[in-house]
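Sample entry as discussed:
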Amino acid sequence: MNKIAVVPGSFDPITMGHLDIIKRASTIFDEVKVVVMNNSSKNPLFSVEERKALISEVTDDIPNVEVDSFSGLLIDYAVEVKANAIIRGLRAVSDFEYEMQITSMNRFLNENIETLFMVSNNHYSFLSSSIVKEVAKYKGNITGLVPEAVENALKLKFQ
């Protein structure tokens, strides 16, 4: 039986912190589905298709990673792809309360799919897509915070 994990997020854009979680999950699970969730409450810089393309480019060297998108409940996507687990990254204690609420609701909706928390690498504990976009918007240095392809895409967006 294949062990399938879902790594969800808005990934607007994908950061080195996201990539770290994805790479670590790929060493534990047979398949990792990175799913760009279309969150209607957010105003994204990149379209869903642009985000998927960037994630595909930067995960191309990880053979068991597949990139997808979904509008709707994460738990419905997890059921659809026959996932065993949902992987959530935690940067700081402040993330835990929010993530716990989501996990509890997902567990209420389907108790057969586990949620696993991965603590981010200390190098990326301060990092968020919002911070990266803000720094990039004002031409600050984001080298090392996002993959090179993402850095280039951000520079194009903010020209």
The helical segments are 16-26, 48-58, 74-80, 93-109, 129-137, 148-157. The first helix runs from residue 16 to 26.
